Amino acid sequence: MGCGSSKPHTTTAAPSGASKSASKSAASPKGAGKKFDTDYKRGSTLGEGAFSVVIEATKRGTDEHYAVKVVTKSKLTKEDEIALKDEIDVLNELKHEHIIRLYNVYEEPSYYYLITEQMKGGELFDRIVSKSFYNEKEARDVCKILFEAIGYCHSKSIAHRDLKPENLLLQSESNDSAIKIADFGFAKRVLTPNSLTTQCGTPGYVAPEILEGVAYDTKSDMWSLGVIIYILLGGYPPFIEQNQRELFRKIRKGQYEFHEEYWGAVSKDAKNLIASLLTVDPAKRLSAKEALSHKWLLADGKKLAAQDLGKNLDEFKKYNARRKFKGAVKAVIMANKLSSLGVNFKADLEDD
Q1: Fold of the domain built from segment(s) 122-316
Q2: Which numeric CATH code is attached to 11-118?
Q3: How would residue 33 be classed by pLDDT, with cut points 50, 70 and 90?
Q4: How confident is the model at residue 167 (pLDDT cuts 50, 70, 90)?
């Protein structure tokens, strides 16, 4: 599923040494009045979407590499343009070590250019499947980072609304690379509790209240994190159905289980945290701040390191391979649609 407007299917990524300036507002970008190509040299294409392409670019006179989302204005509906400016506004405000950074925005007569970090390390989940050994402490350390980053967003009254593995990226290829949350195309300010109404997100990760069509807020992100943590520990998603109607039924009811074959090796505290996140009633669901105080997040690292998840890692590798295959198929379908329908193409709602 998607949001109210079409959203580009792109992989945004982070810099190797970047300027610290960022545009102060979507209405008056720092690059206003200047040509993008005057300041940057274009490189290879990193991804394509319904109305944008993401390219690699190097700042002229430096060795600084960036990912640049190039948005074609003529392909934007009024809703799309509002959503884009919301995304810029949100990214300009978010300055956190685990959130992808927007450095600059250029506006030209035909295009917008969003200059962001280039995440050279790829997806977090791909890094995990490359491991030979995997334990509960490693999963816990990732979860702590995610709670801190999303907690920061929520402290700014911003909901991400599309948390999923594809949006958890690594800044570099090093073993100690920073994890960063990316793709704020659906992000929205939450001015008052339960003030959001647009149905958006990705099937499998979307919160029940969004599927029910009722008003919601930042707690919807916590459900999505619950799904991600379930996968990190169990190796497979909590809600699995080929039929999307049945998938949504299970999500609305919070119908999942901890199968003993894979969850017998996982601590009770970890399972308790997941259950506290995959709670259908958002009022009873943990906030990011509450999650960071959960017993599992504070547990002795040595004890968690002894909780070997080798069998679950094997299952994780199978799940990730299926996920990547589906993503590749979607990319081909998207490319074919774009080439055959051109500017009249309206992106399909995401279906993961």
Answers
A1: Transferase(Phosphotransferase); domain 1 (1.10.510)
A2: 3.30.200.20
A3: low
A4: very high
Residue numbering of the annotated binding site = 69
pLDDT of residue 328: 55
- Annotated catalytic residue, options 80, 86, 89, 162: 162
Binding residues for ATP: 69
This prediction has a pTM of: 0.84
pLDDT at 351 (0 to 100): 41
Q: Where in the chain is the domain with CATH 1.10.510.10?
A: 122-316
User: Residue by residue, what is the 3-state secondary structure of the chain?
Assistant: CCCCCCCCCCCCCCCCCCCCCCCCCCCCCCCCCCCHHHHEEEEEEEEECCCEEEEEEEECCCCCEEEEEEEEHHHCCHHHHHHHHHHHHHHHHCCCCCECCEEEEEECCCEEEEEECCCCCEEHHHHHHCCCCCEHHHHHHHHHHHHHHHHHHHHCCEECCCCCHHHEEECCCCCCCCEEECCCCCCEECCCCCCECCCCCCCCCCCHHHHHCCCECCHHHHHHHHHHHHHHHHCCCCCCCCCHHHHHHHHHHCCCCCCHHHHCCCCHHHHHHHHHHCCCCHHHCCCHHHHHCCCCCCCCHHHHHCCECHHHHHHHHHHHHHHHHHHHHHHHHHHHHHHHHHHHCCCCCCCC
Task: Tell me if residue 162 is catalytic.
Answer: yes
Average the pLDDT over 44-73 and give the result.
Answer: 94
Average pLDDT across the chain, whole number: 87
Mean pLDDT of the 138-151 span: 98
Task: Note the pLDDT of residue 30.
Answer: 54
